[in-house]
Amino acid sequence: EAGVVQSPRYKIIEKKQPVAFWCNPISGHNTLYWYRQNLGQGPELLIRYENEEAVDDSQLPKDRFSAERLKGVDSTLKIQPAELGDSAVYLCASSLDWQGDLTNYGYTFGSGTRLTVV
Amino acid sequence: AQKVTQAQTEISVVEKEDVTLDCVYETRDTTYYLFWYKQPPSGELVFLIRRNSFDEQNEISGRYSWNFQKSTSSFNFTITASQVVDSAVYFCALSEAESNSGYALNFGKGTSLLVTP
């Protein structure tokens, strides 16, 4: 079974340019998360999707960040325009919903996209 | 408020020493999950263990062991006979089932472990 797939692996852009990251979750995982990991820190949640719906985007800087999850499968995270402080690793993760059986709860991260804004 | 505290920022040990990484968490939920992840220099997050709040049984997997104590809200991780390949940043994380977080993970700031030959 393929894991969570993210692309690109690395991205270097100049400030004020747009950038987009793509994520393909594990098949059957209806919950998808985007996290940002700043250097020397743990990942922090940006947005959570349940199927197509963004159910928690409270930590997403909406002035420049946007995300979508078409058809409840793949997701794209966009930054426009990028700022120097956006340099970080952007991680996508997916999980099953808890169906009342704790053993069913699975949570998988992709390899991340390392963004450098210069 | 930080839900997961990893007080040790950096630890350096010599190969074959045992090392314990501390994790203290905070939650009001009765149902929650605790995780440990390893992040080697290559950057990917490698899943090590998941524990649910109803299972306080300690676990051993090879050289790794975990001590979950609800009384002290701790979920510590011990590496026995450390090896150079264990060098990485280790993250403890909490996922709360009863809040509206949808199982989003709250990570600690990580402990950087360096194992030298």
Can you describe what's shown?
The complex is a heterodimer of chains A (118) and B (117). With 118 residues, chain A is mainly β. In chain A, 0% of the residues lie in helices and 47% in strands. Chain A contains no helices and 11 strands. Chain A has strands at residues 5-7, 10-13, 19-24, 31-37, 44-50, 53-56, 65-68, 75-79, 88-95, 107-109, 113-117. In chain A, the strands form 2 sheets. In chain A, strands 2, 4, 5, 6, 9, 10 and 11 form a 7-stranded mixed β-sheet that branches. In chain A, a hairpin with a 6-residue loop joins strand 7 (65-68) and strand 8 (75-79). The termini of chain A are far apart. Chain B is mostly beta strands and 117 residues long. Helix content of chain B is 0%, strand content 51%. Chain B contains no helices and 12 strands. Chain B has strands spanning 4-5, 10-14, 19-21, 24-25, 32-39, 46-52, 59-61, 64-69, 74-79, 88-96, 105-107, 111-116. In chain B, strands 2, 5, 6, 10, 11 and 12 form a 6-stranded mixed β-sheet that branches. The A-B interface holds A 31, 33, 35, 40-45, 48, 50, 55-56, 89, 91, 93, 95, 98, 102, 105, 107-109, 111-112, 114 and B 4, 33, 35, 37, 43-45, 47, 50, 52, 54, 91, 93, 95, 97, 100-105, 107-110.
